[in-house]
Fold this protein.
Amino acid sequence: MNEPSRACMRVGLTALTMAKYFRDVNEQDVLLFIDNIFRFVQAGSEVSALLGEC
């Protein structure tokens, strides 16, 4: 993935938000797959480091 860390973080959080919407508002069953959780966690670490929160 060549996207910036912010974009990687945003994709994961957007997917989770959409899943919650379908679960809570539409009262549908939701199954969310995350292909590579390591990249999401790595992006979160990079964003935290850039913000000085580590």
